[in-house]
């Protein structure tokens, strides 16, 4: 099996934990895994991404047009990474935009609805996760990463099933948070 | 052996532990920081680890221990090597007894650095052998070999990785702690003819170093990580590459048939292996990041041996002169080199709407924002210069704060402010420096400015940690990376000992007091200091968050427009302010500047979180 997955979002949204969960699950299946992450200055509210390659690969980086799946924590960031998606690949995207400070103070513009429209027009295999509804149902916005991971499992392009992700989660997340995370993982069902 | 999913820097650390490293020193800097942190975390108990106050101090500590026969490592980012270059240049002439690895992380792009300098070139300049790993697994094994080479030849060696190796992750096989080498240092043996650098010793050792490096080049030609991947069908074209680019070349050449040379030790250059690679070729493309090191070496080899091989790369414009390479850049360069007609992959997408612009910004509730805003308001209407420095607070340059007029290198802001003062004495000169940066390289500049009669205000932004690199301790924090609680070095006492008479410490989250303090202190002559002390938000637990009362908010937009806090957003009506409670830390700065007191509810909580921040 080989899968190329991109996770993207804004610094602080929890993309790295989601990337670790996928990697742990792949490792437990004895699959080779390589990833590349954004670490450092960009974490302060900048655009961040992780590239993951499951299966034999010479580099963790994914070339344009080669990703099987993009898990986007933010609509604009999904559009930014879209050139990496292969034809027929899947996109799982959170509907909730993160407004950049530059847009709040009028130094730039950002129309998140236009991003979602663009994704609908250009991605056949698209799952939009209503992040506000999920946060309301779950009582917290903090597990958005796990909600998205659940939707990614159901996209069929993650290459890992729910049980495998749950096992990885139980190893990385304290027991008192299991319930919350299991509900989050199942939310998009 | 067991399998672990490791970051490149973690693998380097575990490799060093497996090699029996006895002492590790370093200064934090992206992308090198996790090496030393992992040594501290996975310390079997017998390794001395320290965050030194800067790279020069770390280099000297590691050298001393290596003189005494210990295996040592010093860690830093590429610009850190500039700080440590003085001891390194001389150390190469003296040599070491125990194996010593200088771990330097280069940053093509640059993603988090001031320069795109290439430590391979620094190796050539300092005559220190250089190792250049290509993947997480390669780095794990190679660092163990680097210690052996260092010890065998009695020289420090440079182990330089780049961001994609340092911050790449891979599931790899690593040794169990029981399999680690055990090194018992012999101790320092007095011998002034060996350890004391004098001109006579330097000229003698210089000759020996040059001779050794020729021998080492031959040794490296047989080193298993310097490899030639042979073509299947006879070909006239080859690719020479290194580091992470080796992976890009292999990935993009799966369906191409070429001869590929991977150079794992760029200095001393494995000349014999290069000759074997060049045999029968007409043309070579050098796929490199940062400097054209291999390209120059191959041009030299061709000249030396009279080979008629055309060497292409950065010098011929076939590979970009600057920036980080990508799979697309490498693929396109190789396609052009082979004369392939380019078939675009996949369907071209329609042009997307304008993408959000996201430069990094100060976090919501960051005390630096309050410090900058207080100085900005206090100095309104006056002629000023705000000299910045290296750290999170460089982000004070962003709109709307716009409080960083210069930034050069660690600690430079103080000297720059002094230079501006001597040229235009009517300007109110400020130097902003963080707590860790002050200890690393701000004290010298402060003494220089004080003694040479400058007039400037030193503003220390003390958030009680080294925030940008992930919250490492420093001498002002009172704890060490080994977890010891130790006596803090007091900035106030240091400044007063230098001779400054005005040294005021204030909580920047008290807005009125901060503005008043800045006005009062800057009116004093000479060098004076304000210490804005408030912990990094990642080290404290937010309690009460602020909220906007829509009935009171007059939609003036002042809070959003002047503070640029990511937690301040527009409400549903698109006019009145609203607080994003997932980001607000309750710093209360917006409450204090709201003209109609429409924001309330924030309570600062200074109790430290347990353990390290969750980066």
Average residue pLDDT of chain A = 93
Terminal residue distance of chain B:
29 Å
Looking across the biggest beta sheet of chain A, what order are the strands in?
2-3-1-4-5-6
Beta strands of chain A, count? 6
**Domain module tally of chain B:** 4
CATH class descriptor of the largest domain in chain B: Alpha Beta
Tally of individual helices of chain B: 21
What's the overall geometry of chain B?
Answer: globular
The name of the CATH architecture of chain A is: 3-Layer(aba) Sandwich
Rg of Cα set of chain B: 27 Å
Percent of residues in beta strands of chain B: 15-25%
CATH topology title of the largest domain in chain B: Rossmann fold
Helix and strand content put the structural class of chain A at alpha/beta
Basic shape of chain A = globular
- The number of distinct β-strands of chain B equals 22
Name the CATH homologous superfamily of chain A.
Answer: Pyruvate-ferredoxin oxidoreductase, PFOR, domain III
Order of neighbouring strands in the sheet with most strands of chain B: 3-2-4-5-7-6
Oligomeric description of these chains:
heterodimer
| Broad CATH class of chain A | Alpha Beta
List the helices and strands and how they pair.
The complex is a heterodimer of chains A (189) and B (615).
Chain A: E1 3-10, H1 15-28, E2 33-37, E3 47-54, E4 67-72, H2 75-81, E5 85-94, H3 101-104, H4 112-122, E6 125-129, H5 131-138, H6 144-155, H7 162-172, H8 178-186
Parallel strand pairs in A: 1-4, 4-5, 5-6
Antiparallel strand pairs in A: 1-3, 2-3
Chain B: E1 2-7, H1 8-18, E2 23-26, H2 34-41, E3 48-51, H3 55-67, E4 72-77, H4 78-83, H5 85-94, E5 100-106, H6 119-126, E6 130-131, H7 136-153, E7 157-162, H8 163-166, E8 168-174, H9 192-195, H10 199-221, E9 227-229, E10 237-241, H11 243-252, E11 259-262, H12 271-278, E12 283-287, H13 293-305, E13 310-312, H14 327-338, H15 367-378, E14 384-387, H16 412-423, E15 428-434, H17 435-451, E16 456-462, H18 491-498, E17 503-506, H19 511-522, E18 527-533, E19 547-548, H20 558-563, E20 568-570, E21 577-579, H21 589-593, E22 599-600
Parallel strand pairs in B: 2-3, 2-4, 4-5, 5-7, 6-7, 10-11, 10-12, 12-13, 14-15, 15-16, 16-18, 17-18
Antiparallel strand pairs in B: 1-8, 9-11, 19-22, 20-21
Helix pairs in contact in B: 1-2, 1-7, 3-5, 10-12, 11-14, 15-19, 16-17, 17-18
């Amino acid at each position: 099996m080989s899968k190329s997955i991109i996770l993207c979002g804004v610094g602080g949204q929890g993309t790295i934990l989601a990337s670790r969960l996928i990697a742990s699950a792949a490792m437990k299946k004895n699959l080779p895994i390589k990833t590349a992450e954004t670490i450092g200055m960009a974490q302060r509210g900048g655009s961040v991404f992780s590239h993951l390659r499951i299966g034999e690969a010479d580099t963790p980086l994914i070339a344009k047009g080669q990703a099987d799946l993009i898990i986007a924590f933010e609509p604009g960031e999904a559009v930014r990474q879209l050139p990496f998606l292969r034809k027929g690949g899947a996109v799982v995207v959170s509907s909730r935009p993160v407004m950049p400070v530059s847009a709040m103070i009028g130094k730039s513009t950002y129309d998140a609805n236009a991003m979602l429209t663009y994704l609908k027009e250009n991605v056949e295999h698209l799952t939009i996760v209503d992040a506000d509804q999920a946060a309301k149902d779950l009582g917290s916005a903090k597990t958005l990463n796990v909600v998205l991971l659940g939707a990614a499992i159901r996209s069929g392009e993650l290459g890992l099933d729910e049980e495998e992700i749950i096992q990885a989660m139980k190893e990385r997340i304290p027991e008192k948070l299991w319930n919350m995370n299991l509900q989050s993982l199942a939310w998009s069902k | 052996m067991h399998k672990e999913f490791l970051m490149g820097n973690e693998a380097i650390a575990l490799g060093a532990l497996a090699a029996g490293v006895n002492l590790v020193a370093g200064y934090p800097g992206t992308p090198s920081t996790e090496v030393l942190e992992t040594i501290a975390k996975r310390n079997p108990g017998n390794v001395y680890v320290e965050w030194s106050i800067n790279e020069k101090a770390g280099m000297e500590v590691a050298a001393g221990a290596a003189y005494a026969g210990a295996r040592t490592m010093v860690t830093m980012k590429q610009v850190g090597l500039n700080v440590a270059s003085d001891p390194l240049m001389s150390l190469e002439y003296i040599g070491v007894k125990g194996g010593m690895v200088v771990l330097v992380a280069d940053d093509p792009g640059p993603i988090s650095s001031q320069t795109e300098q290439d430590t391979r070139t620094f190796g050539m300049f300092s005559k220190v052998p250089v190792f250049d790993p290509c993947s997480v697994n390669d780095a794990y094994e190679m660092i163990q070999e680097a210690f052996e080479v260092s010890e065998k030849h009695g020289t420090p060696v440079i182990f330089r990785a780049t961001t994609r190796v340092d911050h790449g992750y891979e599931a790899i096989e690593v040794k169990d702690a029981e399999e680690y080498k055990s090194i018992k240092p012999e101790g320092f043996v007095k011998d002034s003819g060996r350890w004391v650098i004098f001109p006579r010793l330097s000229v003698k050792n210089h000759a020996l170093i040059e001779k050794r490096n020729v021998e080492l080049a031959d040794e490296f030609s047989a080193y298993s990580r310097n490899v030639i991947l042979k073509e299947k069908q006879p070909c006239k074209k080859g690719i020479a590459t290194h580091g992470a680019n080796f992976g890009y070349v292999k990935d993009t050449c799966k369906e191409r048939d070429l001869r590929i040379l991977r150079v794992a030790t760029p200095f001393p250059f494995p000349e014999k292996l290069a000759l074997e690679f060049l045999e029968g070729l007409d043309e070579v493309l050098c796929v490199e990041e940062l400097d054209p090191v291999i390209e120059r070496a191959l041009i030299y080899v061709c000249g030396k041996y009279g080979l008629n091989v055309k060497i292409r790369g950065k010098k011929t414009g076939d590979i970009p002169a600057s920036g980080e390479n990508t799979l697309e850049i490498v693929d396109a360069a190789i396609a052009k080199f082979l004369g392939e007609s380019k078939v675009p992959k996949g369907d071209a997408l329609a042009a997307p709407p304008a993408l959000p612009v996201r430069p990094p910004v100060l976090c919501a509730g960051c005390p630096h924002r309050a410090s900058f805003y207080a100085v900005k308001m206090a100095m309104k209407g006056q002629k000023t210069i705000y000299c910045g420095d290296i750290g999170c607070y460089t982000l004070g340059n962003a709109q709307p704060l716009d409080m960083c007029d210069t930034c050069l290198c660690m600690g430079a802001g103080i000297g720059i402010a002094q230079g501006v003062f001597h040229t235009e004495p009517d300007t109110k000169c400020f130097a902003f420096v963080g707590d860790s940066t002050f200890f690393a390289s701000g004290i010298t500049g402060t003494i220089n400015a004080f003694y040479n009669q400058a007039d400037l205000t030193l503003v220390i932004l003390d958030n009680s940690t080294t925030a940008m690199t992930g919250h490492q301790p420093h001498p002002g924090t009172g704890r060490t990376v080994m977890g010891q609680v130790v006596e803090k070095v007091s900035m106030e006492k240091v400044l007063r000992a230098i001779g400054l008479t005005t040294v005021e410490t204030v909580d920047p989250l008290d807005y009125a007091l901060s503005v008043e303090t800045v006005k009062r202190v800057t009116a004093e002559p000479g060098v004076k200091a304000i210490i804005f002390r408030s912990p990094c938000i990642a080290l404290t637990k937010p309690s009460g968050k602020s909220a906007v009362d829509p009935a009171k908010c007059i939609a003036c937009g002042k809070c959003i427009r002047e503070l640029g806090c990511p937690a301040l957003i527009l409400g549903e009506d698109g006019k009145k302010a609203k607080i994003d409670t997932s980001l607000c830390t309750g710093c209360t700065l917006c409450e204090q500047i709201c003209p109609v007191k429409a924001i309330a509810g924030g309570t600062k909580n200074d109790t430290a979180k347990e353990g390290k921040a969750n980066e």
